[in-house]
Write a structure and sequence with these properties.
Number of domains: 3
Subcellular location: Cell membrane; Membrane
Family: Belongs to the ammonia transporter channel (TC 1.A.11.2) family.
Number of strands: 10
InterPro entries: A/G_cyclase, Ammonium/urea_transptr, Ammonium_transpt, Ammonium_transpt_CS, NH4_transpt_AmtB-like_dom, Nucleotide_cyclase
CATH topology of the largest domain: Ammonium transporter fold
CATH class of the largest domain: Mainly Alpha
Helix content: 55-70%
Organism: Roseivivax lentus
Number of helices: 22
Mean pLDDT: 88
Largest sheet: 8 strands, mixed
Protein name: Ammonium transporter
CATH superfamily of the largest domain: Ammonium transporter AmtB like domains
C-alpha cells in the first residue's frame, strides 16, 4: 500500500468513526428526554467493547488463516508488527465492526437493560459479525476469496449485508425478545408513536452518518484509485434518492412530508447502495436508493402491524434495505462482475438466506435462552422513570423539576422549591415557578385564615351531620326535613375495586395492608373532592362514588370518567412507590336511581336501583387496570374520550352486555364543568 493509499484509508477510517457520533445523535434525538443519556452511553460503550473484542478475537475469526472457508484461525490479539498497511487495514475493519454493533442501540432503546445491551454487543462482535464477514470477505494468500460464500461468487463491496443486514438482523431478534415499550401499542392494536426529545439533533445525526459514508464506501477501495470518485457519487446519489422518495411517498400517503421517513429513506438509500456502489452507474444508484427507501417505509409499517417496536427504524433501514442491497448486485451489477445474471442472483440469494438464518434466527434463539436466565429488559419502574435516572443516575434539570412537581402533587406541600437558575431555560422556568408558588402560599394562608374565622360558628352547629352526610343533604336535615329521599332521573355511579388485595393482606402485617388501604382511599377522596363528586361508601377494598346527585352537573358522566382516570393514575403511583404492580378494576354506568338517608341512630346516605346494580356488575366483569363502562356511558361521552370495545360479557343477574374500555380524553380544549340550573329534585 503506497503512502497516498495509506493516508486515504486512514482518512476514511476517521470518517467511518464519525458515523458513531451520527448514530448517537440520531438515537438521542428520536428517543424521549428521560432516555437520551442512556442511548448516548450505549453508543460509547458498544464502541469501546467492540474495539477490545475485535482486537482480541473478532479480527482473527474474520481475517485469520481460513479453516475450510468457515472461520479464521490466526491473528488473534492483533499486532501488525510495524507493518503500516496491516495496521491501517485493521483500523478500517475495526470501525466497520463498531458500526455493525451500534445499529442495535436505537432499535432496543428505552427498555433494554445496560448489562443486557453489552451482552448482545459482545455476541455481535465476537461471533455473528466476524464469522459471516469471514464467509463473505476473507481473502486467500493468492488474492482470491477464502470464505465459502465469497468463493461461490457472493459480492458485497462495502457491507450492505456483512455490516448492515447483520446488525439489523440482530436488532430484530433483540426487539422481538425484549418486546415493545410500555404504551407503544394499545390493546386494540393501534400503534402510538412517542415524540422524540430533539428532532433537529436527529437530522444532524443523519448528516453526520451520510458524511461518514464517504469513508465507508470510498475507503473500501483500499486506496485512492480511479474508482473512488464513482464510489462517492453513487453513494451521495443513492442517499439523495432515498430522502426524496421518503418525502414523496409520505406526501402521497399522509398528505404531509414526514421527517421520520425522509431521514430513514436517506439512510436506507445509503445502506442499499453499499453492496454495489463499485459495479453500478449513477442512474442505477438512484434507482437502488429509491427502492431501498420504499422498503424502509413499508417495512416500518409492517413491524407496527406485528406489534414489533423499533424506536429508530433500524430494522427496516439496515436489515431489510441491506438485504435489498445484496440482491441489487445481481439486478444491476452482473455485467461488471462478468457473471451471468442467474449465477450472480443465485449467489446473492444464497447470501440473503444465510443472513436471515445466521444474523436473525440464530441470535433469536440465543437471546431467548439468555433472557430466561438474565432478563434483557429493565423493570417497569425503571422504564417508567426513564433509563437515564433508573440505570445511570444521570438526572437533568428538567427531570428534577418534574420530581418537585410530582412531590408537591403527592404531598400537597407548596413549600418545596424547584431548581432555579438564570442561565438555563429550565432554570428560568423554575425561577418563575417558585415565584408563583410563593404568591400561592401567601394567598392560601390568607384564604385559610378568613375561612377559619367565617366557618367556626357554623362548623360547631353542623359538624356531626356534615361529617357523615353530603353537605346539601345535611343542610336539608338542619332545615327540619325528617325524611330525605330523591328520585334522580340521570346520574353516574362508579365502583372501584382493588385487584388481589386479599392476597396482599395475607402476605404482609395487618398494619401495612391497612396503611395501604388508607393511603389509597385518601388519594381517591382527594380526586372526587377535586371534581365535586360524592363518596358513597367503602366496603373492604371497594370504593364507590356518584356524580350528578348531590351537585347538578350537566356533564356528570364525563366528570365521573375524568375522576376515574385520575384514580387509575393515583393507584399506579402508589404501586410504583411500594414496588408492587398495584391495580384496580373500575365499573361505570349511568341512568336513573334513588338516593336517600337511612336510619335514625346512625345516618347512612345510600343509593339503590338498577343503575347501582349495573355499575357493580360491570366492575366485577371488568379487566384489571381498565375503566369498564356500559353502552349508556359511551352514548354520553363517546365524542370526548378515547375508548375501545371490550366485548360481550355476561353480567350476574343481568345477562349478556357489551362493555367498553375508556383510555382517556381525546386531544382538544380543556373541559369546563357545566352545571344545570338549581331546579330541586322530586321527593
Amino acid at each position: 500500500m503506497s503512502q497516498v493509499d495509506l493516508v486515504w484509508v486512514l482518512i476514511c477510517t476517521a470518517l467511518v468513526f464519525m458515523m458513531q457520533a451520527g448514530f448517537m445523535c440520531v438515537e438521542a434525538g428520536i428517543t424521549r428526554a428521560k432516555n437520551n443519556i442512556s442511548v448516548a452511553i450505549k453508543n460509547i460503550s458498544d464502541f469501546a467493547l467492540s474495539v477490545m473484542l475485535f482486537w482480541l478475537l473478532g479480527y482473527g475469526l474474520m481475517y485469520g488463516q481460513s479453516y475450510g472457508g468457515v472461520i479464521g484461525t490466526s491473528g488473534f490479539a492483533f499486532d501488525g508488527l510495524g507493518d503500516a498497511s496491516a495496521y491501517a487495514f485493521f483500523l478500517f475493519q475495526l470501525v466497520f465492526c463498531g458500526t455493525a454493533a451500534t445499529i442495535l442501540s436505537g432499535a432496543v432503546a428505552e427498555r433494554c437493560a445496560f448489562h443486557a445491551y453489552l451482552v448482545i454487543t459482545a455476541l455481535t462482535v465476537a461471533l455473528i459479525y466476524p464469522i459471516f464477514g469471514h464467509w463473505a470477505w476473507a481473502d486467500a494468500p493468492d488474492g482470491g476469496a477464502a470464505g465459502w460464500l465469497g468463493r461461490l461468487g457472493y459480492h458485497d463491496f462495502a457491507g450492505s449485508g456483512v455490516v448492515h443486514a447483520v446488525g439489523g438482523g440482530i436488532a430484530l431478534a433483540a426487539i422481538i425478545v425484549i418486546g415493545p415499550r410500555e404504551g407503544r401499542f394499545l390493546d386494540s392494536g393501534q400503534a402510538r408513536r412517542f415524540n422524540g426529545s430533539n428532532l433537529p439533533l436527529t437530522m444532524l445525526g443523519v448528516l453526520l452518518i451520510w458524511f461518514g459514508w464517504f469513508g465507508f464506501n470510498g475507503g473500501s477501495a483500499f486506496g485512492l484509485t480511479d474508482a473512488v470518485p464513482r464510489l462517492l457519487l453513487n453513494t451521495i446519489a443513492s442517499g439523495a434518492s432515498g430522502v426524496l422518495t421518503g418525502l414523496c411517498v409520505t406526501w402521497i400517503l399522509e398528505k404531509k412530508a414526514s421527517v421520520f421517513y425522509a431521514m430513514n429513506g436517506g439512510l436506507a438509500g445509503l445502506v442499499s447502495i453499499t453492496a454495489s456502489c463499485d459495479v453500478v452507474s449513477v442512474r442505477e444508484a438512484v434507482m437502488i436508493g429509491g427502492v431501498g427507501a420504499l422498503i424502509a417505509i413499508f417495512g416500518d409499517r409492517l413491524l407496527e402491524r406485528f406489534r414489533i417496536d423499533d424506536v429508530v427504524g433500524a430494522v427496516p433501514v439496515h436489515f431489510m434495505a441491506g438485504l435489498w442491497g445484496v440482491l441489487a448486485v445481481a439486478f444491476f451489477g452482473g455485467d461488471v462482475l462478468a457473471a451471468s445474471f442467474l449465477s450472480q442472483l443465485t449467489a446473492q440469494l444464497l447470501g440473503v438466506a444465510v443472513l436471515i438464518l445466521f444474523a436473525f434466527a440464530l441470535p433469536l434463539g440465543i437471546l431467548f435462552a439468555i433472557d430466561r436466565v438474565m432478563p434483557l429488559r429493565v423493570t417497569q419502574h425503571v422504564e417508567s422513570i426513564g433509563l437515564n435516572v433508573g440505570e445511570h443516575g444521570a438526572n437533568t434539570d428538567l427531570n428534577e423539576l418534574f420530581e418537585v412537581m410530582q412531590r408537591q402533587a403527592r404531598d400537597r406541600d407548596l413549600s418545596t422549591r424547584a431548581p432555579q437558575s438564570p442561565f438555563t431555560e429550565v432554570g428560568q422556568i423554575g425561577l418563575f415557578y417558585n415565584s408563583v408558588l410563593f404568591e400561592l402560599e401567601r394567598s392560601f394562608e390568607l384564604i385559610q385564615s378568613q375561612k377559619n374565622d367565617l366557618s367556626e360558628a357554623v362548623e360547631q352547629k353542623s359538624a356531626l351531620l356534615e361529617n357523615i352526610l353530603p353537605k346539601r343533604i345535611a343542610a336539608r336535615m338542619n332545615g327540619g326535613a325528617d325524611q330525605i329521599v330523591d328520585q334522580v332521573t340521570d346520574a353516574t355511579v362508579v365502583f372501584v375495586d382493588i385487584v388481589d388485595f386479599t392476597e396482599y393482606t395475607a402476605s404482609v402485617p395487618p398494619e401495612e395492608s391497612l396503611g395501604l388501604l388508607r393511603d389509597l382511599f385518601r388519594r381517591f377522596d382527594a380526586v372526587i373532592q377535586k371534581y365535586d363528586l360524592e363518596k358513597i361508601k367503602t366496603v373492604g377494598d371497594s370504593y364507590m362514588y356518584v356524580s350528578g346527585v348531590t351537585s347538578d352537573m350537566a356533564d356528570h358522566c364525563a366528570v365521573a370518567v375524568d375522576a376515574a382516570v385520575e384514580v387509575l393514575f393515583e393507584t399506579r403511583q402508589i404501586g410504583q412507590r411500594i414496588g408492587r404492580p398495584l391495580q384496580v378494576r373500575i365499573g361505570i354506568h349511568s341512568g336513573p336511581l334513588v338516593a336517600g338517608v337511612v336510619g335514625d341512630l346512625r345516618f347512612v346516605y345510600d343509593l339503590w336501583g338498577m343503575t347501582v346494580n349495573m355499575a357493580s356488575r360491570i366492575e366485577e366483569a371488568g379487566k384489571p387496570g381498565k375503566i369498564s363502562v356500559s353502552q349508556g356511558v359511551i352514548d354520553r361521552i363517546g365524542s370526548e374520550f378515547v375508548y375501545e370495545r371490550q366485548g360481550r360479557a355476561r353480567l350476574k343477574g343481568i345477562g349478556p352486555t357489551v362493555l367498553y374500555s375508556v383510555e382517556g380524553r381525546r386531544a382538544g380544549p380543556a373541559r369546563k364543568l357545566r352545571r344545570k340550573p338549581e331546579t330541586g329534585t322530586a321527593g
